[in-house]
Design goal:
Length: 254
């Protein structure tokens, strides 16, 4: 959506940790495929880390993460430090954060690993155009470069006890690359939640208080409104419920 972006941690990381040479990051979000796909095609940098001028049709199938949008500089200042402080509060210390930054950096480098069609004896199959990005991703993730390339470009199966290696088509390999990136991000998110639970002293099965978040549908108004801009029945019913169960008991305690 125009004017919006999500997965803010990538932008905060580039602004706050790009100076860390061990992460091999460029501070410009436009250098990363996963962060630079909302710009008009003519504005994609020739020779940037993506290595390709991609068609709009191809880009439309390749948006697993975020759209890059410019925001006021003041809105980003100090955000990375704020994130680090918040993690410190829930027990994620500096060494743990460093490992997390390497995983997130690995995701960005993985996105820049362009999958192309390579001419092989089996016909046109998936290949890696520039293994430099794959090597950076592998280094950040602590795996062997050749193993990562094989993960992205071939599929192994066993038939009658014999392992068969099947080279993937470019589209299949591209899908696999993005699936790996999503899985890494989801695992990192779950790890942070687990760290927060551990720091709060949560033990499975123990009767402990909890923090609940009630997300109530709000009203939206755009130049062109659709059905999703209409407050649904569940939203109208959740408001009196939240008043009854949350605000009225709190007022009674005053």
């Amino acid at each position: 959506m125009t004017g919006e972006r999500n997965y803010h941690i990538f932008y905060d990381l580039l602004r706050g940790a790009a100076s860390d040479s061990s992460l091999c990051l460029d501070g410009d979000p436009m250098e990363y495929f996963y962060l630079s796909q909302s710009v008009p095609i003519g504005q994609v940098k020739k020779g940037a880390s993506t290595g390709l001028l991609l068609s709009e049709a191809f880009l439309s199938t390749m948006r697993p993460f975020s759209w890059c949008q410019k925001v006021p500089e003041a809105a980003e200042l100090g955000m990375f430090e704020h994130v680090c402080h918040s993690m410190e509060v829930i027990g994620i210390d500096q060494p743990m954060r460093s490992d997390l930054w390497r995983v997130l950096s690995g995701i960005l480098h993985l996105g820049n690993t362009a999958i192309v069609e390579a001419d092989t004896v089996e016909g046109l199959k998936a290949g890696i155009e520039d293994k430099r990005h794959a090597a950076l991703a592998a280094n950040m993730l602590g795996v062997d470069t050749d193993s990562l390339v094989a993960l992205l470009t071939v599929r192994r199966t066993t038939i009658r006890g014999q392992e068969i290696v099947i080279k993937l088509q470019r589209d299949d390999a591209t899908f696999r690359r993005d699936a790996v990136a999503k899985a890494l991000y989801a695992s990192a998110f779950e790890w942070i939640v687990q760290c927060a639970n551990d720091h709060l002293g949560y033990k499975a099965g123990a009767p402990l208080p909890f923090i609940g978040v009630l997300d109530i549908f709000g009203f939206e108004s755009f130049a062109v409104n659709g059905l999703e801009q209409v407050i649904p029945p569940c939203g109208s019913r959740s408001r009196p419920f939240s008043n009854l169960k949350v605000f009225i008991p709190l007022l009674a305690q005053l």
